[in-house]
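Worked example 2:
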Amino acid sequence: MPIPRTSFRRRTVLGAIGGTTAALLTPNAPAQAQTSPSSVAPGAAAADQDRAFFGAWDAIAGSWTTVGRLNYAAAPTLAPVEEAVKTGDYPAAGQRLAEHFAKREARATLPFLYNGTFRPGLVPLFIDHIWTLGTGEIYQDVVTVGAQDSVAEADVTDAVTRSFATGDLIFFLMARNKEPSTAVFHSRTAGSGAPVLEVTRADGTTVSFSPTADTYIKAGADASHNFGSDPGLQVRDEGTGAFTDETRKAYLAFRVEGITEAPKSAVLKLTGRNATTNEAKKVIVFQSVETFGETTRTWANTVQNTFSWQGDPGGFTWKGPAGSDPEYSYQLPRCYFAGPMADAYRSSGDETIAAGLVDLLTDFVHDADGYDSTYGAGAFPRSLDTANRILNLVYAYEILRTSPSLTVAASTAILRTLEKSGQYLAVATSPTPNWMQAQKQALAEIAIHFPEFAASPGWLTDAGDFLTNQLSQALYLDGGYAEASDGYATGVAGTFVGLVNYFAANGHQLGGTKDLGRLAHFLADENFPGGWGPGYGDSGSADRRPLLATLADALDDEELRYVATDGQKGTEPGHASVLYPDTRVAVLRSGWRPDASYLRINADRGPHSHPDELAVTVHAHGRQLLPNMGAFTYSNDPRSNWLRTTTESHTTVEIDGKAQTSDSAATFDLFATNAVFDVARAWSDATAGVRHTRSVLSVHPGMWIVSDRLDPADTASHTYRQNWHLLPDAHPAVDATTKSTATAFPQGANLLIAPARPEKLTAQIRDGYYSPAFYNITDTKYVTYTRQGPGPTVFDTLLLPAPEGTEPQATVEHMPVAGASDATALAITFDTHRSATYCIAHAAPRGALQFGRYGFDGTLAYLGQDRQRKTWLLQGGRQLTYKGEVLVSSPTPMTDVAVLLDPRAATVAITGSQLTATTDHHEAIRIHAPWARTVTVNDRKAPFARRGDAILAAAIG
């Protein structure tokens, strides 16, 4: 249905927006006089802009006194433009230029950018200058109330479909129009008419839910007042600007259970009225993905993402309202509305939409031209925002150029602003790789899409040269990305592959694909099993498979295709676990299929990083078990600050309650991997005065032992908190005796976190936050183990996942170690038939370590057994003994050797990354297995020799 033309008010636009043809934008608009910051009258400023853009011709001299920004030789249809300019008829020049673009052959653009969740009902809101930042508030419907109480029904099928799996649904109400009246809805504590969420299941049955919480917030003097106990939910907005002291917004929370698939429909029923006048009052219903406290939410502590300038003659100011997320100031001027509105116009042919979009774009140009004296709207407010806006403006202009709603003045204003942006982006610099990539991407699109601009050939060369070389400068030598953020690394890769395709489609070639391949494999290596990104740094976790599939096609890479399709196509990568030593990241995985186990440990740094050195992220049996907790927003909100700036919010050890510093010394000094187990060890000095070393043993197919050692430089007492962060539906419980923490997810895998020496620990379940995506946050729980005291301190922790339908069980006991004071050992019991012994030396041992009945002279040993098999996992030593009898002996140190013995089957399987098959008694490892009849080395049957009770089949090297 066409949007009524009266649903928006066109902003009065002064002549400076489009030169001497500006009057065509606002018919019958009265002439206004104002003084620019440079004390140039509007008419003079408009004439100056015309001369600068079109050029100025001296007919007597037959030469240009001002060389314009257009290349009139770029197309024959530009000749009439040049002729009009040479006669000084700039209105005619603008008319001819608009005609040129209207008749020009259609050209492909880069995709537009959008920062939220678009729904068609947003278009009339955009036209009325109502805009939402990000994905935290999602438009659902508009309801109407009158002077008497009545039931208003909002269609919220989209919200329930989006969120039924999590069970938590939040709704947010705000006034549709600016008017001095208040809508009052019954709250859940009202005697009657309480809100109801009615859901029709896929099978046609209906179920209703009552709110678990509701409240409203109010600006002005009541900004810090909580209205959670009020029987009414008030909604109001009036006046000019984004809000006034009388603005009120309402929030409702529901817990939805028993919905196992997308519903047929869902309706939010609200009983309310216009409590001020007899007029009908409209209220917008949004879904919110931010939980709230009924007794704590106030205007002052709410990060708001939706604001309205409806009815304000000035429209958007293109700056963030007071108290808004800082990103509002940056993202509103990116014109994210332009792409969806242009698409809506193209699909509907509704000129009201085109006129509304033109109004918004010219409003931006007018206002922003007054905020910057050099490039005006072409550079407002920052280079990154300009770069993102370019993609949206070019996309929109390509569609609007044939619309009768695009006036000559508006066309000239948009083109002039795009050209100014080209000038600006050609010289703007930034130390941040993703900013520079965005800037040069935008410059390339201006150059390719508008060869009519005189500087376009030089801009294309500039952008192409930079982009060709940029990835090599944005990557570490090992191929990891310099910004410590999953989302930013993915964004850069996605942008670059899109540019490669865009250049090729327009007859140009963009180099740098070798570096793109390195980055693509870095992303694939870091991806969770099942295709989602790990979400570290300023990022959330999202499905990366579509991007990896695009990269696989662009690079013709079968390993990327394998990861992108969960192994359905392509070739399995030649490795599983991997260390990126320069990036300072290790990933330990059992394989590449969706049910594989995965652990990421990092000591990375760079823009968008968090104080999370040596944090681990764990995924097993198809789900995240120890997630990264996200970022929420870039605002000063306490939850954002906790997520982004504290070490407490990450799965690592927090020292003395301090946040780590990101520019400290750190490195991985041990990494070994084979098909049976992995070992990684890193240290960090990120907390001054205390070195933290974290070692991880990964036993495939899925179990980890994490050993933390804290070495202070002084003799003072320190407080160490080892934090384990969990998803909101983990429902953790701590055993009072063992201090083990067990999760209790309603569905899917679970995790046991079992610490050694529980008597020396204080265990606590604490309140935290989880932000799976920007502007999306919910409460969650996490577990903290605390130790306090002087001198070196050690935490040894077993992480044991279990698939759905089973319960992870284990007990961990500390064992004394003879032969070194800086080594620890554990006795692990899984059940009556399965156990293991573990020992780790935190410094290079000077001799054999004795733990229980075992002895080993290396760095790490894991010795497991069940009813039938024994497993010996060894790193760094030459000899393993049991009760003094030699079990394994090697002439050279064992970098990573796994021995799996099955006496019943008479088989021995030897695995290691540096093994070669040999029976040479001078080189071969001797393994105590007098009963062996079959031996394999790295899964291949191998000959073996006997020396007494020992077999010889493989050697290091």
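The chain has a mean pLDDT of 93. The longest strand covers residues 776-789.
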